[in-house]
Amino acid sequence: xxxxxxxxxxxxxxxxxxxxxxxxxxxxxxxxxxxxxxxxxxxxxxxxxxxxxxxxxxxxxxxxxxxxxxxxxxxxxxxxxxxxxxxxxxxxxxxxxxxxxxxxxxxxxxxxxxxxxxxxxxxxxxxxxxxxxxxxxxxxxxxxxxxxxxxxxxxxxxxxxxxxxxxxxxxxxxxxxxxxxxxxxxxxxxxxxxxxxxxxxxxxxxxxxxxxxxxxxxxxxxxxxxxxxxxxxxxxxxxxxxxxxxxxxxxxxxxxxxxxxxxxxxxxxxxxxxxxxxxxxxxxxxxxxxxxxxxxxxxxxxxxxxxxxxxxxxxxxxxxxxxxxxxxxxxxxxxxxxxxxxxxxxxxxxxxxxxxxxxxxxxxxxxxxxxxxxxxxxxxxxxxxxxxxxxxxxxxxxxxxxxxxxxxxxxxxxxxxxxxxxxxxxxxxxxxxxxxxxxxxxxxxxxxxxxxxxxxxxxxxxxxxxxxxxxxxxxxxxxxxxxx
Length: 484
Fold this sequence. Notes:
With 484 residues, this protein is mostly helical. The protein has a five-stranded mixed β-sheet, with no helix packed on it. Helix 4 (72-95) packs parallel to helix 12 and helix 5 packs antiparallel against helix 7. Helices cover 56% and strands 4% of the residues. The longest helix is centred in the middle third of the chain and has 39 residues, at 263-301.
């Protein structure tokens, strides 16, 4: 109003009422680049050391109960029985007859065309499917503590029997089938060699000494990382022998998590766990595809051209066998204790979110340091890019995609288990729908037999999900745990 006292302008009020940024964050910094204006140029004001501003919240881990897990021998036996049932179903789909016709219109006197079945091929497939069970029997016999003579006798008898059956079946198959059909017998091994023998980066170099677990019963010494660059690549025969040993040997013991405090130790532990997880996933993929190939695909390759069968139903059976084998092997090789270990390591690793240029220009920004544990919400710069800390504990490399992928997969402990339940539940629902819609006797029989096997797998997954869901939802303060 005219003649009245003017109040402070908006610019003066903002300058006098709000404290300066220098008062809030201090005037010196050891690892920061200070603030940046909207034009991108740096301001003389710099941020103090991040450890002087915010102390990262300590990582707390939940305790999960010991869930029952099938032993190696029991699992291999159940898995072998499942594969035999699936093989029997595929033979029913291929060689079924219409035996219920009245006698005035006879079609066949038996339910299957047994004279068309190649028993040498069936014996060959059975031996190939039993390779894991046979090796599990040999391994269990060596761990029981029996005398060396009995152990070697058991191994000799089993290996000799399997070798004799393979030779006998191969000789008869060579006599009755063409070379093109015989190439299908060893196709999985031809694929396995280039996929698994030439990607030995994790074995060509020794693992760090702070991984905390044994690798093939030999501890990696402290100076292994210093001489890793001097390790020479192995020849083809050595790589092939190691890969074959991994296929037959039981999976190595589950690593241990020691809650390391050093960022370098955390990243080294993550690298070890990534290599171990990739090896287990590779084994799951190969064995599931191997089982589906020999159970559902190989019998189709030896069917005579005059034999009619339902191609759609046989291919559908092939997909179902592969999915079920994948889920069964994953639950065995990635048990809840192992997934909890990966979750704990991901909680220590953290994640960075890449931001666009110009965003958060008035907030303190720091230069990323590999020796710093960054709290949640901190902005750092690395390689001219701006990143924001997502996890409560962040030691990951901002530009490393594998670290971001590891955190995405395992920062939620039930993510993998929920995915398996979704896959297996979808398969069971589809099979129930197919069972209700089936009109042919072989479809009804195949769906009923496979469903019994899938019910057992789904029951174990749901049991683990219920128990682990309650364990992870329990408040951490009630455990009385110490912060790591």
